[in-house]
């Protein structure tokens, strides 16, 4: 099983130095990918700009958008952004897409969230048409640049429930799930649900990716991780965010090893560690842990 690292874009204190050092160390270390996710009404750095920097700063690791809330955006713009990063990374880009769960993000972009699952299905088909060189409308020029990867980057579905997985099984190259606390039971359940959905659709087994929040290499790592988790999940309501934060355990190496062991046992292809602190010592200790496996 491969192990990837998310850039700490969701952490307070993330800056240019974080971007440069995390990309440099990850590219030289035993990790498979660097990634980041999308939020609008939050303090994080913008996803596409950050991924473009990561593509230029690295030579080896894959670059993953984890994930783009595709129905909130003009499809041609996302097609162009993804193709550009595929070029900047020399064909190392993977696009995760989903419908998101934050209405404020849709509203801040001047978009509605109604029928977002249907819109996602149509948007993925349009993405692939644009990447194939089809113009966005009659008489228009194609949306470039041409992708390095034939047919465009792999598309992973950010899907968890049975209905969303059944839809994703019609068009996705794989599934990217997430377990906030790195629960072995959640990881195993989501992997099996994805395999079952693809089998029911007559598809080969998908690429399976998941991840969790964690932190290592800081003073009071339990407090750091729980504070990060509570702030990030604030959109769920104060009570729910506090409860999820209190349950976090992935602030010790042994707990993180148990999560990674569970992911490997569940047959995942890749597991992405999402840090709760932007400090370089977090990454250095993480690379040491990964290298010990």
Tell me what you see in this structure:
The chain has 293 residues and is an alpha/beta fold. The chain is 44% helix and 15% strand. Strands 1-2-3-4-5-6-7-8 form an eight-stranded parallel β-barrel, surrounded by seven helices. The protein contains eleven helices and eight strands. The chain is globular. The chain has helices at 16-28, 47-57, 75-88, 103-108, 116-131, 162-168, 184-200, 221-232, 238-246, 253-265, 280-291, and strands at 2-6, 33-36, 62-69, 93-98, 155-157, 174-176, 207-214, 270-275.
Characteristics of this structure?
293 residues; alpha/beta; 8-stranded parallel beta barrel; 11 helices; globular
Gross morphology is globular
Mean pLDDT, all residues: 96
Run of helices and strands: EHEHEHEHHEHEHEHHHEH
Main pleated sheet: 8 strands, parallel, barrel
List how many beta strands DSSP finds: 8
Q: What level of helicity do the residues show?
A: 40-55%
Beta fraction: 5-15%
- Helix/sheet category: alpha/beta
Number of helices: 11
Radius of gyration: 18 Å
Residue runs with pLDDT of under 50 for 5 or more positions: none
Question: What is the terminal-to-terminal distance?
Answer: 10 Å
Main sheet strand line-up: 1-2-3-4-5-6-7-8
Outline of the structure:
Helix content is 44%, strand content 15%. It has 293 residues and is of the alpha/beta class. α1 packs across α2 (47-57) and α8 (221-232) packs antiparallel against α9.
Topology:
Elements: E1 2-6, H1 16-28, E2 33-36, H2 47-57, E3 62-69, H3 75-88, E4 93-98, H4 103-108, H5 116-131, E5 155-157, H6 162-168, E6 174-176, H7 184-200, E7 207-214, H8 221-232, H9 238-246, H10 253-265, E8 270-275, H11 280-291
Parallel strand pairs: 1-2, 1-8, 2-3, 3-4, 4-5, 5-6, 6-7, 7-8
């Amino acid at each position: 099983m491969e192990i990837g690292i998310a850039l700490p874009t969701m952490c307070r204190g993330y800056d240019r130095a974080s971007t440069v050092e995390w990309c440099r160390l990850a590219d030289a270390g035993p990790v498979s990918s660097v990634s980041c996710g999308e939020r609008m009404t939050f303090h994080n750095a913008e996803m596409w700009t950050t991924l473009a920097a990561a593509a230029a700063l690295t030579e080896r690791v894959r670059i993953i958008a984890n994930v783009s809330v595709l129905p909130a955006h003009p499809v041609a713009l996302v097609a162009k952004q993804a193709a550009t990063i595929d070029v900047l990374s020399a064909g190392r880009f993977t696009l995760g897409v989903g419908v998101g769960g934050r209405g404020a993000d849709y509203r801040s972009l001047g978009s509605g969230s109604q029928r977002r699952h249907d819109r996602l299905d149509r948007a993925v088909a349009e993405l692939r048409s644009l990447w194939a060189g089809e113009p966005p409308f009659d008489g228009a020029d194609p949306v470039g640049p041409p992708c390095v990867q034939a047919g465009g980057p792999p598309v992973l579905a950010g899907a968890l429930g049975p209905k969303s997985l059944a839809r994703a099984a019609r068009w996705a190259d794989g599934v990217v799930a997430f377990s906030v606390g790195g629960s072995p039971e959640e990881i195993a359940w989501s992997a099996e649900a994805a395999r079952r959905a693809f089998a029911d659709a007559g598809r080969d087994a998908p690429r399976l990716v998941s991840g969790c929040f964690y932190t290592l290499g800081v003073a009071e790592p339990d407090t750091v991780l729980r504070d990060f988790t509570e702030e990030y999940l604030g959109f769920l309501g104060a009570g729910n965010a506090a409860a999820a934060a209190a349950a976090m355990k992935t602030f010790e190496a042994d707990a993180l090893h148990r999560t990674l062991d569970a992911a490997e046992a569940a047959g995942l292809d890749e597991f992405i560690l999402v840090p709760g602190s932007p400090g370089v010592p977090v990454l250095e200790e993480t690379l040491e842990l990964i290298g010990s496996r």
